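call fold(seq) -> tokens
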Amino acid sequence: MKTLNVALCGALAWGALASSLPARSAEGLHDGIWRVAAEPATGPCSQRHEFSLSVEEGRIRYSGYWPVEASGSVTALGVIRIRVVRGEETLAAKGLVRGETASGEWVSPGKNCTGSWVARRS
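ret:
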């Protein structure tokens, strides 16, 4: 169960990161691998998670080993939005990219958890 919460929190944080990345030419400006750290703030989610997400042509993807599906995007203005699903759990994240870093917030309504995330392009 903790692994699931960690994976979801991480994916959510990444989603937030990806949503805030500006596009190079509307798409592609923030392409690359981003290292994300998600920190819980409220609720029963208590563990910090770190993971990597990839951005390709403004689309966010998780390709790690956890059984998680992550989808999201980064607009030309650097706004990140992402949705992470693992089984019946769903997380949503949003954020903003500034140069080689990004940050934002995440929420897991099913677990009644919230938190923040930060990311840096690798």
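Residues 43 and 112 are 6 Å apart (CA to CA).
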